[in-house]
């Protein structure tokens, strides 16, 4: 089993606004660099995605994968990989908490693994790039920069 990688960022917005952007997975192609298409397959009672399929183009890694989501209000969301072509694990979470005045602290935790062999150090570096980039893109999207 892969080790988890995590990154944290503070976003100048309330947790509800941050979580609304995270929950709007269909808009990811508009503001993320690597997600090219998203289709929500199923929604939960709260209207948020329960299962969604993504088309990923992250340079060396190109894949189509499906995630299953578990939402905890505006506090956290976690997901687990249901199926993919190249990925064997893409499990993670966003955890939101109060940051400084008027900000939300967002922690992104990710476990990523591929069918092709990859040295642990390189995998962790790739995970760190993914988490850091995702948080920066989320911050830009929420803060409107």
Descriptive overview:
A seven-stranded antiparallel β-sheet has the order 1-7-6-5-4-3-2. Helix 1 (15-23) crosses helix 3. Helices cover 26% and strands 48% of the residues. The mean pLDDT is 88. The protein has 145 residues and is an alpha+beta fold. Strand 5 and strand 6 (87-98) form a beta hairpin. The chain is globular, with a radius of gyration of 15 Å.
From the structure above, extract its key features:
single chain, 145 residues, alpha+beta, 3 helices, 7 strands, 26% helix
Strand order of the largest sheet: 1-7-6-5-4-3-2
Strands, total number: 7
Shape: globular
What string gives the helices and strands in order? EHHEEEEEEH
Cα distance spanning the termini: 37 Å
Number of helices: 3
| Main sheet characteristics | 7 strands, antiparallel
Mean pLDDT: 88
Topology:
Layout: E1 5-11, H1 15-23, H2 28-31, E2 35-43, E3 49-58, E4 61-72, E5 76-84, E6 87-98, E7 104-114, H3 120-143
Antiparallel strand pairs: 1-7, 2-3, 3-4, 4-5, 5-6, 6-7
Helix pairs in contact: 1-3
Brief description of this entry?
By secondary structure, the chain is an alpha+beta fold.
């Amino acid at each position: 089993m892969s080790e988890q990688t995590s990154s944290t960022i503070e976003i100048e917005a309330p947790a509800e606004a941050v979580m609304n952007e995270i929950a709007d997975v269909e808009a990811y192609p508009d503001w993320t660099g690597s997600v090219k298409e998203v289709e929500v397959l199923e929604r939960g009672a709260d209207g948020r995605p329960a299962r969604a399929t993504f088309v990923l183009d992250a340079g060396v890694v190109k894949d189509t994968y499906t995630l299953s989501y578990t939402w905890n209000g505006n506090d956290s969301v976690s997901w687990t990989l249901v199926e993919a072509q190249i990925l064997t694990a893409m499990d993670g979470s966003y955890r939101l908490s109060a940051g400084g005045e008027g900000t939300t602290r967002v922690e992104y935790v990710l476990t990523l693994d591929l069918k092709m062999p990859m040295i642990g150090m390189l995998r962790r570096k790739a995970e760190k790039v993914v988490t850091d980039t995702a948080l920066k893109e989320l911050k830009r999207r929420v803060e409107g920069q």
